[in-house]
Here is the input.
Amino acid sequence: MPKHIAIYLSNNENKKLLLRKITSGELIPELRRLKGSIFSDITLNHFIEEEERHGKFEVKTTTSNSLKNSSDGERKRALLNHLLSKPLLDYILLDNIYDCLDRSAQSQVNIRLERLSEQTKVVQIATRKRDILPFINAVFSVHQGKLQLVDDTLKTSKKSKKFFVNELPQPLIQRVSGNNPLIQLRNVSVHYGERAIISNINWVIKPGEFWQLIGPNGSGKSTILSLISGDNPKGYMADMTLFGIKKGSGESVWDIKKNIGFYSSEMLRGFKRRDTIESMIISGFLDSIGLYSYPSDIQIKIANQWLALLGMTSIKNKSFSFLSGGHKRLVLIARAMVKHPPLLILDEPTNGLDDRDSYIFSELVNKIASESNTAIIYVSHRKEEHINPDKIFELTPNPTGGSTGQIN
Ligand SMILES: Nc1ncnc2c1ncn2[C@@H]1O[C@H](COP(=O)(O)OP(=O)(O)OP(=O)(O)O)[C@@H](O)[C@H]1O
Here is the structure.
């Protein structure tokens, strides 16, 4: 077996099981006698649970925040620092290293792993071809429980065909949106304790606009999203108008949320529900996960148009949990879009997706952008070549205060 190997996966694989098969030596027999460390979201979740249940704060972040109160990228950096600060083991298993990491963290990680690879064996798990580390000697896929060499297939990337042929389903109610701003942030600042996170942010989002929100790890992207979605208590003090309602004027969180469709790759974490695929989509009308009241005939009809668009009509009565990771994500986007919300928020949506499903996903997002009047805020560190936002709002951290924002 070559020294450093990558396992290139589709997102259909059961990751937890795969990690177990690798570390037990079932998939790579030479690992049976060796000791390794694991860099994976699964390890990270274990440390977060240790913090919450047992008050053990073993993994230190650069901000001294707990892992729970850290941004996604800060958590990943902290885990890597933690693993690399320990005495070297025989191998390191790296699972989807780049998700959530900003450009500079990605280059630093590359340098550190290159150095590490001189002393220890690296086993990488990747769902995107371009993530495969340069020093990897051989790339495998998993076929019928065994590793199979795939290097040649990787070099010839096939052009994907168009996936969505039907038009986007029409909304239940045609909103007269005009061109009034949906979102207005005026000199908005957020502090946690003494620490400034964002400073004097001014941002106006109008109907139908397609924005990408970018900025390095910890610059405040999720903080801004949580202000817009009404989930951040700091929003009460902020000068914001959300969907025509001035913040702090007696509005309920529901008044805000009914205008937003939200999708984040995090939504699938620990998702164990047994709802059918159809009821998952219908539940988007009711802002619930799962159905707790009867949908109307027209809601069922529109949900079925979405199922047709996704090519899932014939499997609509199957359990959502039966779907692959990529298809689950498409269903959750349809769920977020079924009510044609004025605003769709996509937070790191392609994390965990494989190459094929990222392409399909990008096609769906572009279709929503071009065929509906829904505005989109898309947050991602990855440059997805097929996703084409019109405008970029960039956060730049300021060493003496919080991040400032500018339109590019
Ligand atoms: N509840 C909290 N208490 C203290 N600090 C917090 C809390 N929530 C977030 N932070 C800090 O606020 C900063 C901004 O976090 P945020 O999640 O908004 O960043 P981000 O730009 O989304 O980062 P990433 O790209 O890594 O996801 C981070 O440094 C984070 O540690």
Q: What stands out?
A: The CA atoms of residues 37 and 87 lie 10 Å apart. The chain has two domains: 5-155, 183-407.
